[in-house]
Amino acid sequence: PSAEMITLMWSFIVSIYSIGGLLGSSSAGYLSVRFGRKKAMLFANIPALLGAALMGLSRLCGSFEMIIAGRLFSGVCGGKLAFLPVYAGEISPKKLRGFINVTSTVFLALGKTVARILGLRELLGSQSLWPMLMASCGFPALVQLVALPFFPESPPYLLMHIGDQEGCKKAIRQLWGEGQHQAEIDDIMKEKATMKNTKILSVLELVKEPAFRWQLYMIVILTATTQLCGINAV
């Protein structure tokens, strides 16, 4: 292929991840409520492993289309990362909740750093080992797929969405140990009562709501300028 076609294919391989992220994030809220935080996170590992397999086998099969498809599936998994801070925050004790929520950002940055190091030509960025580099994104997904079934479901989800008070208490004891946790359960019940009186806006209703107009403008401008500053190209 010509140099222009190679540039076009490479650009498409790079950008298709964001399209997958859009698809994944748009369904994250529905899946987390429909199936629960834990099951939704387990489902998110399926496209991650599928994407890793496609990219890892792409050279063996001589197919750049497999890289494109693998990047798309990896993006879908990346878009569903919204499950992680929600689940981590809901299963952590109140005094550690802020700290636990911050760790997701820290480990996201750590993952990018590890990827940059593994991508060096002296390691996995060589001409012979790059398929292993692209397939390495499936390793964290595989670890989570094996380990996550041993964790309980989110206690707030069990109580607020399922109405399973006994299951909520069991999950709390498993996470936080034996003891008096009635205060935490009462907090969840108060939050549930508050949610009943709160209207959940759709995207269209949010855009039309005058009270949120300036906040919406600010978020859109900040997000757009972040994309235009060149950080993704870097």
TrEMBL record:
One of its GO terms (biological process) is dehydroascorbic acid transport. GO terms for molecular function: D-glucose transmembrane transporter activity. Keywords: Membrane, Transmembrane, Transmembrane helix. InterPro entries: GLUT, MFS_dom, MFS_sugar_transport-like, MFS_trans_sf. Residues 1-234 form the Major facilitator superfamily (MFS) profile domain. The chain crosses the membrane at residues 12-33, 40-60, 66-87, 99-118, 130-151. It is a multi-pass membrane protein. PROSITE patterns: MFS. One of its GO terms (cellular component) is plasma membrane. It is found in: Membrane. This is GTR5 protein.
